[in-house]
Design a protein that fits this description.
Helix content is about 70%, strand content about 0%. By secondary structure, the chain is an all-alpha fold. Keywords: Sigma factor, Transcription, Transcription regulation.
């Protein structure tokens, strides 16, 4: 069994001059970046363009990555900043997690016909639809914790909050998500039981 090199190992290789290794980081995080980008823009083409810009910026700034947090946290910050800059240039509205089907569109990028995959995607779409009903702050903390797999400390760093505040917000957001699911997805939840 071979183990995959860690993000920090790959970064060290890139910084030592092996630029081709950066492609592995892109491969690992392209869906992560694209999903975040689609929260901000409606156009798939814009999301693809911004995602490319994010990886170019990340590559150029790789020496600035100190390793204090996960690479994904650092990349999230670059992605968010790049999206906001893009929107300011285009003078468009920012699309929040309240917009319908933002996550559903991202989840359907790799659609398959396997029955288990279809069922799993149906569950994911149900949860994503429920997340879309939450306030932007609740949706962000849920997304960062469950989808981006960030720790409470990392979320606090991203959102500019204290860790205990994030813990409380996450708890309350989970409660509200449960309420939304029980109110809007009764039949789907019964099918799962």
């Amino acid at each position: 069994m071979t183990t995959q090199p860690s993000d920090n190992d790959l970064i060290a290789q890139v910084l030592r001059g092996n630029q081709q290794v950066f492609a592995e980081l892109v491969k690992r995080y392209q869906n992560f970046v694209f999903t975040i980008t689609q929260r901000y823009v409606d156009s798939r083409e814009d999301a693809e363009e911004i995602s490319q810009d994010v990886f170019v910026k990340a590559y150029r700034s790789l020496r600035d990555f100190r390793g204090d947090s996960k690479f994904s946290t650092w990349l999230y910050t670059i992605t968010s900043t790049t999206c906001i800059t893009h929107l300011r240039r285009k003078k468009q509205d920012v699309f929040s997690l309240d917009q319908e089907n933002v996550f559903a569109r991202a989840e359907n990028l790799n659609s398959g016909f396997n029955a288990n995959e279809v069922e799993q995607k149906s569950k994911i779409n149900m949860v994503n639809s429920a997340i879309a009903l939450l306030s932007p702050d609740d949706a962000q903390v849920i997304t960062l914790f469950y989808k981006a797999e960030q720790s409470l400390d990392e979320i606090a760093n991203i959102m500019g909050l204290e860790t205990n505040t994030v813990k409380v917000r996450l708890h309350r957001a989970r409660q509200r998500l449960k309420e939304k699911m029980e109110k809007h997805f009764v039949a789907e939840l019964n099918d799962l039981r």
